[in-house]
Structures are given as structure tokens and as C-alpha cells.
Design brief:
alpha+beta; 8-stranded mixed β-sheet; globular
Length: 974
């Protein structure tokens, strides 16, 4: 499909250039606003999902979080929309497919996407006003940023405490050792520029930011002369310009914006740094040290430098066959490669990082020697042209693939272009990499090319930092003690008048939070704007080989899946499934060892893997069916190789490389442990719902908190060679069961590729028909859970869950609408605005028949659990307006109609059918959603959400053990 081209130009703008990128099926158009100098990058594409993005270059020179807090506060009311929270109110009044704001290290962005033109125009109006004409009310700064309050807000005799949404968000974010690792490394790699500081804010520094500092930063940075606009989709650029000019730009003149933008001063000798991170007292510190080395490289916006950096990173770290990754995975100096490994190219200057975790501080020099000797060996041995071609193949595939299943595709392209626009580079170059790929293909013919890059950028580069981050059991208690003492001193110094001002502000803030604004001034869509049922991709079926085939515009890629029903298995075998699906693409296959197999995967595909999917019937969540899915993607020219690769994976994977399996299990453990502070709300919900259906139990045991604990126990057990031998035997036995199951196939590609793909499937799988063995069944699960899971965190994650109904039950639609209704009307205000958590909400999970409340990065525990109950009282005792209901219905419809990539839409349709989710069933559910009434919400809540029947789970710190026990929660150690 061709991009939409419109040559009209708005008089307030000048067109700088237009550039066709055929590999992306779009035209890049660059414009400049004549009066202010604001830049606009428009990606003209034949796509209904239009994206808007405005970014301001923000270069904070401290760790107070000023840019981050401003991002929050700017969205709390503006000149045309003087309501308390237009951003969150618009989420409810919109059919957006994406809506957010985020702070990077050197820019702050406000993006959204929508497939509805009226909705798009509404959101442009609110976003432009919020960014350029923000109210910045001091009470919003107190709520979103930080404030001092008495523990009992009305009682000056109670202790002083810090509160604030960003304050608690960053307490949660910086609880993660990985976040601390990156921030500490950056601070030493960049001693003098903005990257030295934490743009999100360090909690101990956030409390130093004043309201006046915030306003000054806003006036300096939030001006069109410092703005970059970007759009994607089928709305012509001149129509965007008309809106930009009318709603904002015409009111501004040019401003010379002075920003501290420069390259980092180069160091002439490597630096070694030793720092600490907090672990729980009594947890132990053995094998918990992180050691990483980081190098400062060239400009990220120089395409040649950028792609050389990516080439270097891939040569050294792409997979287990890469020399540096192999050294890190096999060394006894640590448990696993650091999650920091790789190239960071979003800053002005790039960084290359590698290292290990699960180590000891005394291993630092030995690790340096290992890394230097490995790099020297690569320089001496060189890298084969075949390997380099495989890496360039990966770069080409990555550029061609139309993504968008998690994040709008247009926004992904804009995010690629934003770094060069911020730093003075050419955004078109980073979008259209074909010319430089051609140049690199020429350069790699020189066997000295890659060795010379390694010498220049790494071995002979003195701007290098080695960071050792060691665990400290006393650090958190010392920090909390220091905070308590500082607050006690602050309280002792308060005059009576100052204490009263704190009380008055708390009262004023609560009054503002409880105020019901006139939201009629905000634009909105309503149910009459909801489209008819979104069309599904059409499939054809080849019965000769049981293949479902979709013709989709995939831009030169093909996708393939081999789908096998889960065989009958014991509970022990079932609990091995996550390890099996992770390991199978990491081990040897047939005559190839795992290193040779990694090279083959890289050369022939865009990646292969395996997954496990299980769901209950649409009318019975306890009746599970499950499938093992082998999947892969490739450039169309490699379609035959992809088919053979997946066949070999399914039929010939080996589980006899014991050291390799031991390494991967250790890596799984570290990844899972690190996920807790970022996904604590999901893990708490999973723990709360574990006893409500067989699917919920399975999720909890395989991927939830019980699964994380099980992985730690397994990793510990595998230190015994006999245990490792036993695991390998069990995995081999499990694979034998799975590979002998009957098979069906999913094939996605462009129309002209499909006949050959199906023929190759038939040829490749000839004579290997699987058997229809006994099916896998699980017993129903039904029990109540009340648990507190303890981990190293400065914030809490709370959940309550209720057993409800499957997706085809008449009440499922009302319960689904109820989640948004409770969040919009009660939980957002109670948990985020008043409680200070980063987020909170509720939702129906009809796959597993549960309704779950949650909070995220929450300073409170018992009060939040009470708020979950209070939300149900509010529902029954308050008179509600139809508009509140309509907004919640819109939110559900927006999720149902969320666009997917061409391949993603086909996968989604196939897997729906696989689990009995027919188009008729989904149409029935949609109709029920559209007809939900407020009486329905009250009825389903009183029927299914009875507080005495709730299950409860929290993820919290050991400091809260007594509070958790007082709530009747059993204590669970990770």
C-alpha cells in the first residue's frame, strides 16, 4: 500500500524535505514553523491509526526529578481545560489506542494514538493546551511531586512524613538493583553532563525540589522553539499544521532556548567504582554482587557510528555463540550475564556495557581480565564474514518488521527518529538504514574491519568505568533512620504557624481531590462514535497438513507456528513447562551443539522460540485446554529455512548439554527475581487469584510468585550433579511426549509467498504425523488465599480477588465494565491522588473467572485494602450519572478494538479460534458490553464481589511483617 501524499502546505510552516522509504511503506516529511522554529516530522502512511507526539528537550542538571514531576503536573489542568485532571478524564472519554506521557534522560514526550478522527482531534486539543498552557497549580505539584504531611494530616502532634505520586513511583523504581546499577554506572560514565543525574528523580533528592524551581523549568523548556512535533498516519500534514497553529503556535514568538547540550569530557584512564545496594536484613549477601564495565562511544545520531555500535554489540553479545556472551555465561565468576549487557543508544553519546551478576566484590579484577582477554582474542581471530552477514540480516529484518502489538507501530517509528531530532542528527537516516547497510556489507569484506572497531571503541578507549555494586543488609535501615531523624529535626524546627500551614495544605489538597469538576468543558466521543465490529483477517485452511493460512501485508516477512496439544502429564512435568519452553531454543539440536544452533538461528530467522498457552472453555474456566507452540519469523527469502528450523526444533532438540542447561536456569532465576519490583501488582493479583480456578493456579505456579520461588529452589538444587542429571532426563522425557503429539500449523505472509510456504510445510513434515494421545486435564481448583510475600522493596503492591464467571456468562460484560467504572470513579482518587500510589485499579479476568483489585508502587497497605472494599460501598450507595457508565464502556470497547500488527491480528484470530473464542461469541460479548446499565453494575457487584469471600495478597517489605500478620495474612518468603 502506498502512503497518503498531500502536497498542500500551511502558510505558517515551511517544508524542508520529503523522503520515500519503500521498506517502511511511508513518506517522511519534515517541516519547520516559521515564527517559532518548532520542528515537525510527519510520517505519511496508509494507516488509520494516527499518532501524535510532542517532545520538549529537557536536560535537568540535578536528580530532583524536575522534568518527571513537571510531566505529571502539566497534565493536571490547563488554560482551556481548568479541571483538576484532564489527562485521566480524557482517558475515559476517548477511543484512544494509546495515551501516555514519559520522561527520558534528555526529552519529555506526550504521545497518543487513535483510529477515530474526532477522538484524535479532541486529544490534540487537550494535549497542546496541557503542554503549552499548563496551570501548574501548587496543590497539583504537592500531589504529584512531593509534600510534607503529618502522619495524621489534621494532627500536628503526629510524625511528619513525605508523600507524593512521583516520590513513591521512584521509591519503587529505585528498589530494583538493575535501576540502581544503570543509574550509578551512568553517573560515572557521564560526570559532567545531564546523564550524570537521574531524570526520573532520586527519592532523597525529589524532596529538595521547590514549586518555584518547577515553574522556572517549565518556562525555560516548554516553549515551541524547544519543541519537536511528530505525527504518523493518513491525516495529511497540513491538517495537523492547521490545528497546531490555531490551538497553540500562533500565540508564541521565537525564543532562544539555552540548554546544557554538549559532549561528555573524555577521561584519560579507566575508573573503578565500588557502591552498595540494599537487601533485606538476614537475607544474606553471598553471590549477590553485580560487576559491570561500561564504555562511552560516539554520537547516537551519527548513523554510521550507531550501526557500527549495533554491529559491535551483536558480534560480541547477540547470543550464546557470541564470544563475550559465551564468556559471561560460562564463567564461574558470577551466576549470569548482567541485564545491562548491550548498546544503549538513546542518549546523545552511546554506551556499551557488559558484566555479570550473582558475583562477589573480589572478582572485579578477574572479570576485567576475562573481558579484555576475550576482546583481544576476537581481535586476533577475527569474525567470519558469514557471521557478520547474519548480523546484518538481523538489522534488515528488524527494520522491515511491522510491529505494533504492544505499542502503536507509528509511535515506534517516531521513537526511533526522536533521538537524532533532539541531538541535531538526521531522523530520516535512522529510519532508512538500507543505504548504510549496503555500505556495511562492503566494509565487512575486509577481515580487519571488525577487529579495528573493537580495538578503537573498546580496547584502546580509556573512557571506561568498572562498577562493583555490592549488597548491604544495613543500608536500607540506615537510610530510613536518616529520613526519620531529618523529619524529626524538621518538625522540631517548625513554628506553630508553619505546622498549621502543613495542616491547611493537606486539608486544601483533600478538598481539591474530592471536588467534582465540570467535565463538560472537555471534548469527548460517545457511544454513537463507536465503530461497528472490527473486521477480522480471513483465513484459509489446508486440510492436507492441517494448516491455517493468512495473507497479510507483512512487508517481506513470513511467520510460522507449529501447534501441539499438551499431552497427559504429571504435576511435576507440568511445572517443568516454563523451563522446557525457554530452554528448547537455547540447547543443541540434532548434530549441532547449542553454539552452532545459535548461529543457525541468527543466520536463518528473526528468532524462534516456544510458548505454552492454556485457557478454560468460554462457559467453564475450570475445564482447561493447553497447547505448546513453536514459533518463528524470517525474511521471505528464508521461508524454507524457517520451516526446517522449526521442524528440527520440534523433533530433534537435545537436553544433554548439562552445563548449558545449568547456565540457563541460573539466568531464568535472575530475570524472574528482577521482575518483582516492576511487576509486583501483576504478581500480587496472581497470588490473590491462585485458588479461584485451575488456570489461575497454573499461572501462579508457573509464572507467578510461587513460580519465582520454585525457580530459586531449582537453581539451588542443581548445584548437586545428580539433580542436574535428573532434570535433563525429565526434560528429555517431556520433549519426547510433546513432539509425538498431533500437529497443526499457522502460516502468515504476503499472498505470493503462501503457496510455496504450504508446499514446503508438506514436504518438510512428510511422514512425521503425530499421534492423538490422551489429553491433558487438570482438576478444578477452589480455595481462598491470604498471603503476604516479602521482598526487598520500598513500596507495596496490594490485591484482592473474587471468583466470578467465564467470558460467555451474561454477567461477564458487566463485570468487565465495572473494573473501569470503579477505577475512574473511586480508586484513582483514593489510591493514587489521596494515597500517593503510582497507580491502582480493578478488572475482570474472564479467562480465569476472577475480578481483581490492585495497587502499584503504593506507600500504604491496610488502608489500600480498605479502599478496595470502600469502592464497592461507593458503588452501591452513590447516585451515578450515565456519562460515568458510558466512559467505562468506551474504555472496554477501546481495548476490544485495539489495533494489532498485520501478523499480530492473524495470530490473535487463530488463537481465539483455537480456544473456542468464535467471532459470534466475541460479537455477543461486545453487544452485552454496549448494553450494560448502572443497575447491572450494582447487581453483579452484590452477586459476585462479597468482601467476606475475597482472597488477598500483597508484595511488601519485611518491615511490614507485623502489619501483614495483623491483617491475618500468612507470611511467604520469596
Amino acid at each position: 500500500m502506498a502512503a497518503v501524499i498531500d502536497n498542500a502546505i500551511h502558510p505558517a510552516f515551511e517544508k524542508l524535505r520529503s523522503h520515500r522509504i519503500s521498506t517502511l511503506n511511508l513518506d517522511v516529511e519534515e517541516y519547520r514553523h516559521k515564527k517559532t522554529g518548532a520542528r515537525h516530522l510527519h510520517l505519511a502512511a496508509d494507516n488509520e491509526e494516527n499518532v501524535f507526539f510532542v517532545a520538549l528537550r529537557t536536560f535537568p542538571m540535578d536528580s530532583s526529578g524536575v522534568a518527571h514531576i513537571l510531566e505529571h503536573t502539566a497534565l493536571c489542568g490547563s488554560e482551556r481545560y481548568p479541571v483538576r485532571d484532564p489527562f485521566f478524564m480524557m482517558i475515559h472519554r476517548s477511543l484512544n489506542t494509546f495515551m501516555n506521557a514519559f520522561t527520558s534522560s534528555d526529552w519529555t514526550a506526550y504521545p497518543f494514538a487513535s483510529m477515530n478522527r474526532k477522538d484524535f482531534d479532541n486529544l490534540v486539543s487537550v494535549y497542546l493546551d496541557s503542554v503549552f498552557f499548563s496551570t501548574l497549580d501548587p496543590l497539583d505539584f504537592a500531589q504529584e511531586g512531593h509534600r510534607l504531611e503529618f502522619e495524621k494530616p489534621e494532627d500536628p502532634n503526629s510524625d511528619l512524613v513525605y508523600k507524593g505520586v512521583v516520590y513513591n513511583e521512584m521509591k519503587g523504581a529505585m528498589s530494583s538493583p538493575t535501576s540502581q546499577l544503570w543509574q550509578n554506572l551512568s553517573s560515572h560514565l557521564f560526570p559532567t553532563t545531564t546523564y550524570h543525574y537521574n531524570s526520573g528523580g532520586e527519592p532523597d533528592h525529589i524532596v529538595d525540589l521547590s514549586y518555584d524551581d518547577l515553574v522556572k523549568f517549565y518556562r525555560q523548556h516548554y516553549h515551541p522553539s524547544n519543541a519537536i512535533f511528530a505525527t504518523y498516519g493518513n491525516i495529511p500534514a497540513h491538517e495537523h499544521h492547521e490545528r497546531f497553529e490555531e490551538l497553540a503556535l500562533k500565540r508564541f514568538d521565537h525564543l532562544d532556548v539555552e540548554l546544557p547540550v554538549r559532549d561528555e569530557k573524555r577521561m584519560f584512564a579507566p575508573v573503578r567504582v565500588d557502591q552498595c545496594y540494599a537487601v533485606n536484613e538476614g537475607e544474606g549477601t553471598d553471590n549477590k554482587t553485580h560487576i559491570v564495565m561500561g564504555w562511552l562511544l560516539g554520537h547516537s545520531f551519527d548513523l554510521q557510528e550507531n550501526l557500527e555500535g549495533q554491529l559491535l554489540s551483536a558480534v560480541l553479545l547477540e547470543n550464546s555463540a557470541s564470544p563475550l556472551m559465551r564468556a559471561l555465561e560460562t564463567t564461574d565468576l558470577g551466576h549470569a550475564p548482567s541485564p545491562m549487557c548491550g548498546l544503549e543508544d538513546s542518549n546523545r553519546e552511546m554506551t556499551f556495557v557488559c558484566g555479570i551478576e550473582g558475583s562477589e566484590p573480589e572478582n572485579q579484577k578477574e572479570l576485567e581480565l576475562l573481558l579484555e582477554s576475550t576482546l583481544q582474542q576476537v581481535v586476533e581471530d577475527g569474525v567470519s564474514e558469514e557471521r557478520l552477514e547474519a548480523i546484518l540480516h538481523q538489522l534488515e529484518l528488524h527494520q522491515r518488521e511491522i510491529a505494533g502489538d504492544q505499542f502503536p507501530y507509528g509511535l515506534q517509528l517516531i521513537m526511533t527518529a526522536i533521538a537524532p531530532m533532539v541531538h541535531g542528527g538526521d531522523p530520516v537516516e535512522l529510519l532508512d538504514i538500507e543505504p548504510v547497510l549496503a555500505t556495511l556489507r562492503e566494509k565487512i569484506r575486509d577481515p580487519e574491519y571488525v577487529p579495528s572497531l573493537i580495538r578503537k571503541k573498546l580496547l584502546e578507549n580509556p573512557h571506561r568505568v568498572t562498577l562493583t555494586l555490592r549488597p548491604d543488609e544495613k543500608l536500607e535501615s540506615h537510610r530510613q533512620q536518616a529520613i526519620r531523624e531529618a523529619l524529626a529535626r524538621r518538625k522540631a524546627e517548625l513554628t506553630e504557624e508553619e505546622a498549621q500551614q502543613i495542616v491547611d495544605r493537606a486539608e486544601a489538597l483533600e478538598e481539591r481531590q474530592m471536588r467534582k469538576d465540570d467535565d463538560s468543558i472537555l471534548p469527548k466521543v460517545d457511544l454513537s462514535d463507536v465503530p461497528l465490529q472490527m473486521p477480522e483477517p480471513e483465513a484459509r485452511f489446508d486440510g492436507d497438513i492441517s494448516a491455517t493460512v493468512y495473507a497479510r501485508g507483512t512487508n517481506g516477512l513470513v511467520y510460522e507456528q507449529v501447534v501441539l496439544p499438551v499431552p497427559e502429564m504429571s504435576e511435576e512435568e507440568l511445572l517443568l513447562i516454563p523451563y522446557y519452553t525457554t530452554l528448547i531454543s537455547e540447547v543443541g539440536c540434532g548434530d549441532l551443539d547449542y553454539l552452532q544452533m545459535q548461529d543457525r538461528i541468527s543466520a536463518e530467522s528473526g528468532g524462534i522460540g516456544a510458548g505454552f498457552s492454556a485457557k478454560g472453555r468460554i462457559d467453564d474456566v475450570q475445564d482447561l485446554s493447553g497447547y505448546i507452540i513453536f514459533n518463528g519469523k524470517a525474511l521471505a527469502r528464508n521461508r524454507g529455512a524457517l520451516t526446517r528450523l522449526l521442524r528440527d526444533l520440534c523433533t530433534s532438540a537435545r537436553f544433554d548439554e548439562k552445563d548449558r542447561i545449568r547456565e540457563i536456569i541460573a539466568q531464568i532465576r535472575t530475570r524472574r527475581e528482577q521482575a518483582v519490583t516492576g511487576s509486583g501488582h501483576a504478581l500480587a493479583m496472581g497470588a490473590a487469584a491462585q485458588g479461584m480456578s485451575s488456570g489461575s493456579w497454573l499461572s501462579f505456579r508457573l509464572g507467578g510468585l510461587a513460580g519465582i520461588r520454585g525457580t530459586k529452589q531449582l537453581d539451588q538444587a542443581l548445584k548437586d550433579p545428580e539433580e542436574l542429571n535428573a532434570l535433563c532426563r525429565k526434560l528429555s522425557g517431556l520433549h519426547e511426549k510433546i513432539r509425538n503429539q498431533s500437529r497443526q500449523f499457522l502460516v502468515i505472509g504476503e499472498d505470493e509467498q503462501l503457496p510455496a510456504m504450504v508446499d514446503e510445510l508438506k514436504s518438510c513434515w512428510q511422514g512425521t504425523a503425530g499421534a492423538d494421545g490422551s489429553g491433558w486435564k487438570m482438576e478444578p481448583v477452589n480455595y481462598t488465599a491470604r498471603e503476604a510475600w516479602l521482598t526487598s522493596t520500598q513500596v507495596n503492591f496490594c490485591s484482592k480477588a473474587y471468583s466470578t464467571v467465564p467470558v460467555d456468562h451474561p454477567d461477564a460484560a458487566a463485570l468487565t465494565v465495572l473494573g473501569g467504572f470503579l477505577r475512574n470513579g473511586y480508586l484513582h482518587r483514593a489510591i493514587r491522588e489521596k494515597g500517593g500510589a503510582y497507580g491502582g485499579g480493578a478488572g475482570q479476568d474472564s479467562v480465569n473467572g476472577t475480578f481483581r483489585f490492585f495497587s502499584y508502587r503504593d506507600p500504604r497497605l491496610s488502608e489500600t485494602l480498605d479502599d478496595f472494599d470502600n469502592a464497592l460501598v461507593w458503588l452501591q450507595e452513590t447516585d451515578h450519572e450515565y456519562q460515568e457508565l458510558e466512559e467505562s464502556i468506551l474504555g472496554v470497547i477501546g481495548q476490544l478494538d485495539r489495533p494489532r500488527s498485520p501478523a499480530g491480528a492473524a495470530r490473535h484470530a487463530f488463537h481465539n479460534k483455537l480456544f473456542g473464542r468464535s467471532s459470534e461469541q466475541r460479537a455477543r460479548f461486545r453487544e452485552r458490553v454496549l448494553s450494560v446499565t448502572i443497575d447491572d453494575l450494582k447487581r453483579v457487584a452484590s452477586t459476585w464481589l462479597l468482601p467476606e469471600k475475597a482472597s488477598t495478597a500483597v508484595v511488601t517489605s519485611p518491615d511490614n511483617r507485623k502489619e501483614a500478620e495483623a491483617l491475618g495474612l500468612s507470611i511467604e518468603e520469596m
